[in-house]
Fold this protein.
Amino acid sequence: MQFPDPLIPGRLTRRYKRFLADVELDDGGTVVAHCANPGSMLGLAEPGLRVWLSPSRNPARKLRYSWELTAVGNHLVGINTGHPNGIVAEAVAAGRIPELAGYESLRREVRYGRNSRIDLLLESPDRPPCYVEVKNVHLSRRAAIAEFPDSVTKRGAKHLEELALMADSGARATMFFLIQRGDCGRFEIAADIDPAYDEAFRAARARGVEALCYACRVRPEAIELERPVPLAL
């Protein structure tokens, strides 16, 4: 995923009301940016951290900027939860995820289950459909270990149950964890943050739900899927 316009650097002043952030730009000005991330953003929303914003091309938009990246040490972390679905879809279409290769079509945001939409639906006439739920991962509390979730997510547990129902029906069901950072070599479920999600994840796996995890190369110009990361289960 290439950013359509150059990102604008600055320093975070504060994040508030979950979806708003005050940022002091390098030119000395201060702007309010949209924060497309409903989680806690542990370790990524401290005042003074280096951040990058994308400008909006829509003149009617209320907030002109969106918060895209945060610098943690020498690494950049993507914090915008609106991007992972597109990043994974782009990688599947390019054949960069061997585990999800070989399907003729890819559709996004397709209704399924009891009252949900699947992020990606892969289909071919000669094989069962593959339902892919994508989760954004940016939490890392220990060196080289990525974790999900960073806050309690009842919605995430619901998605696991929906995937398990698809697996029960004979379809292929995959939970895809996309790490929007490049400094992690292992992935774990943050059971201490959300024990219910950990339990739901293990139950879904026992019913046939697959789990994939890939890390990204994050740059101010682009965020690209880079390599698989092992899951510690």
Notes: The chain is about 15% helix and 45% strand.
